[in-house]
Structures are given as C-alpha cells and as structure tokens.
C-alpha cells in the first residue's frame, strides 16, 4: 500500500482547474494523497470553496483573507470569521499574515486584518494559517505580543522566511509547512531552515497551482505532486519517504483537529 499523504494547502477553487478539477483530484488520490485542505483567500470566495469541500468527503477548508486583499476588507470583524468557522468543515483560520514583497495592501491594513484573524483563531481554537513574506521582524513581534494575550496555534505556511523568525515561531509551538520550494536548486536558505524544524511540527503542502516542485517546476502545480515535496524533505532529513509521509500526516491530523 502507498503511504498516505495530506496536502495541507491547496487552491483548487481557482479558474486554473475549471477544465479538469475532478481529474486533478483523482490523480492526487492515485498518488496517495488522502486528505486536502482548500484554503480561503478572500471571503467572497468562501461559498465556492465550501461547496467544493461538500462535494468531497476527503476535503476540508479554511476561512480568511490573504494579506494581499486586506485593503478590500477594512470592515472585516473577528466575529464574522468566528461565525463562519462554526461550520464543521472549516478546520483553520486564514490564510492571513503580512506580505511586504508585493505591497498590494498597506502594511497597517495587513496588520489590522492579521490581528483580527488571531482573535478568531484564539476564540475558535482553530489553527492560524500564516503567510509571511519579507516581514520577519514585524511578524515575530506580533506573534509574541498576541500570544501574551492568550494562546493560539500558529502554522507558518510555505515557510521561506529566516532562521530568527523560525526560532521565534518554534518557541511559540508553531507548526511549519514545507512546499515545493524546498526542491528548487537555489533554495539553500530554505533547506537550511528546514533542517532545523522540529519533526513533530512539520507538515507538507503544494500551495497549488503555485510552486510546482522539481521536476515539474514551471508547470501548473497540483496535489499529486506532493509526493515530490515529501521526497525532497525525506532526502534533506535523511529519512525514508514512508517515514516522512507518516510523520507529516500524523502532525496534520493533530494540528487540524476537525479533519478525520
């Protein structure tokens, strides 16, 4: 039997899959991916994402607003997120966080939205799915400050930030998700940090349709390629594919308590 894998971050609701969404899922299942989390990027997409999860008993979803869209959700409240998260298929809050690379939304608006998501994660006790790009110092400061107000469970999604933020997040009992970037030829810094991640806090993701791993780089990513992410992490840490599949799936099930 193939080891079962858990893709903790997919964007399968996107138009990139409108022609072959079911075939993409079939390929993933044939590759051994047995569970999926469909990530919410903005609330206007949540009904579509939620409908998709209803059609598949091996799929769950999150609710949240990506930092790119913070400018469009200035009136967002934590209570809105909390109410949507009452749905049994919702297993996480986010994707939320800070992104200083593109600057699509003002950083003050991003921070405001991020803190609202933290409140929702604290209230619901669901994992907080965090996007952090080129904002290490501010992200670390906010996480430490907010943790003092009451515990919540951080998940550092598609971690490509530095070692200092990784140490800060580890001290706060965060989980880290590893993506296809780990397999990129020039991703030495990412691999260096991944070498130090606590094994009981690592999970896998594709972030499809983005970040297709080697040898599929440049193509549309899909959940079946999670096998390559698993191989890359196994090679990095000197573990077998089977051990990484088992460890990361167990970690995911512990983190996302609503997933069966």
TrEMBL record:
Sequence positions that bind a divalent metal cation 2: 131, 157
Cellular component, GO, one term: cytosol
Classification via Gene3D superfamilies: Metal-dependent hydrolases
Membrane-traversing stretches: none
GO MF assignments: DNA nuclease activity; hydrolase activity, acting on ester bonds; metal ion binding
Keywords assigned: Hydrolase, Metal-binding
Residues that coordinate or bind a divalent metal cation 1: 9, 95, 207
Keyword Metal-binding: yes
Superkingdom as given in the UniProt entry: Bacteria
InterPro entries reported in the protein's UniProt record: DNase_TatD-rel_CS, Metal_Hydrolase, TatD-like, TatD/YcfH-like
Entry similarity comment: Belongs to the metallo-dependent hydrolases superfamily. TatD-type hydrolase family.
Full protein name: Hydrolase, TatD family
Lineage of origin: Bacteria, Pseudomonadati, Pseudomonadota, Alphaproteobacteria, Hyphomonadales
């Amino acid at each position: 039997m193939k080891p079962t894998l858990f893709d903790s971050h997919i964007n399968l609701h996107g138009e990139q899959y409108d022609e072959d969404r079911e075939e993409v899922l079939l390929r993933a299942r044939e590759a051994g991916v047995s569970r999926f989390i469909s990530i919410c990027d903005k609330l206007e997409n949540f009904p579509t994402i939620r409908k998709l999860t209803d059609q598949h008993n091996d799929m769950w979803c999150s609710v949240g607003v990506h930092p790119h869209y913070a400018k469009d959700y200035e009136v967002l409240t934590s209570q809105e997120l909390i109410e949507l998260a009452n749905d049994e298929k919702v297993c996480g809050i986010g994707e939320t966080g800070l992104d200083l690379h593109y600057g699509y939304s003002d950083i003050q608006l991003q921070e405001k939205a991020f803190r609202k998501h933290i409140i929702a994660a604290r209230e619901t006790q669901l994992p907080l799915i965090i996007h952090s790009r080129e904002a290490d110092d501010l992200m670390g400061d906010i996480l430490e400050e907010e943790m003092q107000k009451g515990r919540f469970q951080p998940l550092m999604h598609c971690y490509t930030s530095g070692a200092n933020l990784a140490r800060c997040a580890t001290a706060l009992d965060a989980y880290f998700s590893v993506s296809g970037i780990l397999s990129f030829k020039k991703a030495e810094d990412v691999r260096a940090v991944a070498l130090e991640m606590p094994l009981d806090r690592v999970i896998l993701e594709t972030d499809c349709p983005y970040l297709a791993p080697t040898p599929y780089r440049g193509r549309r990513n899909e959940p079946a390629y999670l096998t390559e992410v698993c191989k890359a992490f196994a090679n990095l840490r000197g573990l077998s594919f089977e051990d990484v599949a088992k460890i990361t799936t167990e970690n995911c099930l512990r983190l996302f308590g609503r997933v069966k």
